[in-house]
From TrEMBL:
Protein name: Probable dual-specificity RNA methyltransferase RlmN
Active site (catalytic residues): E149, C409
Compartment(s): Cytoplasm
Broad EC category: transferase
Protein species of origin: Microbacterium bovistercoris
Function recorded in the entry: Specifically methylates position 2 of adenine 2503 in 23S rRNA and position 2 of adenine 37 in tRNAs.
Catalytic activity of the protein: adenosine(37) in tRNA + 2 reduced [2Fe-2S]-[ferredoxin] + 2 S-adenosyl-L-methionine = 2-methyladenosine(37) in tRNA + 5'-deoxyadenosine + L-methionine + 2 oxidized [2Fe-2S]-[ferredoxin] + S-adenosyl-L-homocysteine; adenosine(2503) in 23S rRNA + 2 reduced [2Fe-2S]-[ferredoxin] + 2 S-adenosyl-L-methionine = 2-methyladenosine(2503) in 23S rRNA + 5'-deoxyadenosine + L-methionine + 2 oxidized [2Fe-2S]-[ferredoxin] + S-adenosyl-L-homocysteine
GO cellular component, one term: cytoplasm
Record field: transmembrane: none
Length: 426
């Protein structure tokens, strides 16, 4: 375990917070990895991997195609184009790729159609349940042995799935389990979508929560958060193709509302700009975690490319172009980024870009005794939230459901046990 590098830091008290002496003498814990060594580039900075390493491509699947391409594929197999819609209905509405259930397709061709167009993408390795079955973490093995996870959560009035967009991650954040091994590869569009289809199938079978509760019939995933493994904007094209299919009406897609889909990023500015121009009003979340470059350079290595102000400018632009209020994600880490002056600085930077365009979601971490990555004290959390709210920034502490099974943001990583379970199945 890495020793906590605690240093004292004295910062001038902000003009808006006179008399708050406590914050100026609060310790400053600096980010550092614990139990692993961050890969570095030639200049000694944390290595950033944007390009997916070359590996065998995942099998091409029906869900990788647009509706027009699906018709072409079906025709290539010598069948009339309307069969594509039937296949889409089975996959996106009935959540099945079992030929035996596709009784409206010619019996002699069903197997062939499914083998050719719907090869298996995700093999379930492990399933962990918590919250009396209302939260389920899935561990999936991809065709090449890469492991990814998704977490399904039932809340009152909505069902959220946290999906992965890459196997591993190249952003190398020192607090994040997923980033430790670097980027294995980008996931395909269909691999991203299949996480939702598989979750919907489980819900339809009554597998989420107490099946005796009323209201399960017709339930499905209503909200998607791209906060599983990977940096979604580093796999931009496939993620956006997946989003387009999520929002496409059934049966051509999953018929979801764009507003229920949250695309989050650590701040890949050119990709945020591109997202603003897509004309798909998804919810956009910027994982900021620090308002000052000095800390953020260490906490989020991609900050060495695009600084706090650039990321905030791009986030503001997202609001201007889409009219969608932006979320700022901020994990509150004891004595690292939870100082009152940082709440004030964050409020100042957000207000400098206008009012009503943003809200802040501080995320309380779990207490981790002996680690530098531990939760802020309750009163510090409350003070942080109060200062932002007082400055006119709507701020709400986020629910961190799924922590119990290591399924919260930045925590998704295959353990050696998971790998052993996957190997045993291979
Ligand atoms: S926190 Fe997110 S961006 Fe950073 S390494 Fe982990 S998965 Fe990647």
């Amino acid at each position: 375990m890495t020793e906590s590098p605690r240093t004292r830091q004295t910062r001038p008290v902000s003009a808006s917070t006179p008399g708050k002496i406590r914050e100026t003498s609060a310790p400053q814990v600096r980010p550092a990895t614990e139990g692993w060594t961050q890969k570095k580039d030639a200049e000694g900075r944390p290595l950033l991997q944007f390009a997916s390493p070359r590996r065998g491509k995942p099998p091409v699947h029906f869900a990788d195609f647009t509706p027009a391409e699906r018709i072409e594929k079906v025709k290539e197999l010598g069948l009339p184009g309307f069969r594509a819609k039937q296949l889409a209905t089975h996959y996106f509405t009935h959540y099945t790729s079992d030929p035996a259930e596709m009784t409206d397709l010619p019996a002699a061709r069903r197997e062939e159609l499914v083998t050719t167009l719907m090869p298996p993408l995700l093999t379930e390795v492990r399933r962990l349940e918590t919250d009396r079955g209302d939260t389920i973490k899935f561990l999936w093995r991809l065709h090449d042995g890469a492991l990814v996870e998704s977490v399904l959560m039932r809340y009152p009035g909505r069902i959220t799935l946290c999906v992965s967009s890459q196997a591993g991650c190249g952003m190398n954040c020192p607090f994040c389990a997923t980033g430790q091994a670097g980027l294995t590869r980008n996931m395909s569009t269909a691999e991203i979508l299949d996480q939702i289809v598989r979750a919907n199938r489980l819900i339809a079978e009554g597998g989420l929560g107490d099946p005796r509760k009323v209201g399960h019939e017709g339930e499905r995933v209503t909200n998607i958060v791209f906060m599983g493994m990977g940096e979604p904007l580093a796999n931009y094209m496939r993620v956006m193709d997946a989003v387009r299919t999520m929002v496409a009406p059934q049966p051509e897609g999953l018929g979801m509302s764009a507003r229920g889909i949250t695309v989050s990023t650590v701040g890949l500015v050119p990709a945020i700009r591109k997202l603003s121009d897509e004309n798909i009003p998804v919810t956009f979340a910027l994982s900021l975690h620090a308002p000052d470059d000095q800390l953020r350079d260490e906490l989020i290595p991609v900050n060495s490319r695009w600084k706090v102000d650039e990321a905030l400018d791009a986030a503001r632009e997202y609001f201007e172009k889409t009219g969608r209020r932006v979320s700022i994600e901020y994990a509150l880490i004891k004595d690292m980024n939870d100082h009152a002056w940082r709440a004030d600085l964050l409020a100042e930077k957000l207000n400098a870009r206008g009012r009503g365009w943003v809200h802040v979601n501080p995320i309380p971490l779990n207490p981790t005794p002996g680690s530098i990555w531990t939760s802020s004290e309750k009163d510090v959390q409350d003070e942080f939230v109060r200062r932002l709210n007082d400055a006119g920034i709507p701020t709400t502490l986020r629910d961190t459901r799924g922590k119990e099974i290591d399924g919260a943001c930045g925590q998704l990583v295959a353990t050696s046990e998971d790998e052993a379970a996957a190997a045993a199945m291979a």
